[in-house]
Design goal:
about 160 residues; mainly alpha
Length: about 160
């Protein structure tokens, strides 16, 4: 193993939870989550040389992971046989959510009704990123991040209430 490989593995190890959480937010099926995790790791490796220590490594990693997830999700969504639309379902299958807490399972189920940007927003909110950090990661203004996050939270409340989740 080369020195570059060792540096890469050492850099991502403390932040590997980012990869798992992003994949869980974007996909319900374990197989899809695993595919996305592999793609994120590949993109992190491919971009590792471009990290210039101008921000925290975790911030850079968030940006790569979310951008990869958005593109991957869009590509997978175009494969109609890969993802199913649950428009008429009152509940979504959540067999791969490991959480013991039923409320957390319900929350993750509601994420399936969010668009890709809303998923990124709520993920970063759940990671306790500030509005400024969210804005920076998404390339939008801080005020826009606040508004979009508020609307996303309201949408989640509505989904849970109206869909019976």
């Amino acid at each position: 193993m080369t020195q570059k490989h060792k540096e890469f593995l050492a850099a991502i190890e403390p932040h590997k939870g980012i990869i798992f959480k992003v994949s869980k937010v974007y996909f319900d099926l374990l197989e899809d989550q695993e595919d996305l995790r592999q793609e994120i790791i590949y993109q992190l490796w491919h971009s590792f040389h471009s990290f210039r220590n101008e921000s925290q490594f975790s911030t850079w990693m968030y940006r790569i992971a979310l951008n990869t997830a958005i593109l991957f999700f869009k590509k997978e969504r175009n494969k109609s046989e890969k993802l199913k639309v649950y428009e008429n379902e009152s509940k979504l299958p959540i067999e791969n959510v490991d959480a013991e807490d039923d409320n957390l399972k319900l929350l993750y189920s509601s994420f399936q009704y969010l668009d890709k940007i809303e998923k990124a927003l709520i993920y970063m909110f759940l990671e306790d990123l500030s509005h400024r950090e969210i804005a920076s990661n998404l390339g939008i203004s801080e005020a826009n991040a606040r508004v979009k996050l508020h609307r996303t939270k309201e949408k989640i409340k509505s989904i849970i209430k109206n869909k019976g989740i």
